[in-house]
Amino acid sequence: MRYLKTLPPLSLYVHLPWCVRKCPYCDFNSHQVRGGIPEDAYVDALISDLDQSLVHVAGRPIISVFIGGGTPSLFRAKALERLLTALRARLSMPYDMEITLEANPGTVEAKRFRGYRALGINRLSLGVQSFDDKKLRQLGRIHSGQEALSAIRIAQNAGFENLNLDLMFGLPGHDEASAINDLKLAIECAPAHLSWYQLTIEPNTVFHRHPPLLPEDDVVWAIQIAGQALLAEHGYRQYEVSAYAASQRSCVHNLNYWQFGDYLGIGAGAHSKITTVQGGQITRFSKRRQPSTYLARAGTPDVIDGKRVLTRDDVVLEFMMNALRLTQGFETALFADHTGFPVSAVAEELRTAKAKKLIEWDEHRIRPTELGKQFLNDLLCLFLRNTAPEKVIV
Description:
By secondary structure, this protein is of the alpha/beta class. The strands form 4 sheets. The chain has a 9-stranded mixed sheet, with helices on both faces. β9 and β10 (243-245) form a beta hairpin. The radius of gyration is 21 Å and the shape is globular. 41% of the residues are buried. Helix content is 37%, strand content 22%. It has 2 domains: 10-256, TIM Barrel, CATH 3.20.20; 311-394, Orthogonal Bundle (Arc Repressor Mutant, subunit A). It starts with 9 loop residues before the first strand and ends in a 13-residue tail after the last helix.
């Protein structure tokens, strides 16, 4: 048994599962809208879900809220107002805390941005992916490059100073010039944050069943090196594998994930990670994935789809899978604070990683080297004990 001196920070995740159309690369719990979204019923379900889940967090303060999907911007501001009012009535939420909403650049959603900002939502994450119309069609996106640029302007004019753009590279037909041109267009828009990541083919997607022709590894590597240099030149600091931020604009919510903090998830398919002080037990649980099933069972014990208590090996591996994604790694004290184990519990693995030049390790900090970032899966496998290898995916 282990004991934690304090509990890790706690975030709230809210999942809104509907999209206009399912993208062929997407493996998230998203569902195509058919016959309209039951906004009022779903907000009722979210509130019931939260009421039942409060027992797990016992008055702990929330440091961030992330409303993801799906396409949350398909919901009207009026529906989100009722949700946020319920959240604020039930949770300790500082008035200036980070509240993120994921949105797509479609015309209908963009018209709602000013209403979202008025609700206190202060961070918008736009799923641009590319500004190239041909690439957008290949990705199954329903917006054009011009609509993306227009949506960015609308969001900024609506008061979203803290704006993130999601952008992909390594797309079908991408060479260095075309991928970097996409990135240049994004930088010219001066967002506070960029999530710039490589397209990967995930199981249970259309692209997995019908794989597109992707660029060779050496082309993707050249894109990555050129893009990182360009981002650094324009003041975007890389603080995670695919996250780049202007000064003081790192994502609070995602940092809490990567530092192995706790999070409570409500909504169809939402996941939670909750720690208890006594015994240091860490429990993961998830909610029913299908929206219709979730709507029928929210507020009842049967809304839980799966639950497990993490073993010692689970905790160590999951901590490292998250914290070693950070370019500056983590303070050694964080490991004990968030796992309940001393760093000496993984000293053998750390010595091996250091000998292989995959990490730098001193009494204050553990961080991946450039080689460790390049071969992150190999680094993580050093912490693999009695956990299935397929869990180590970066």
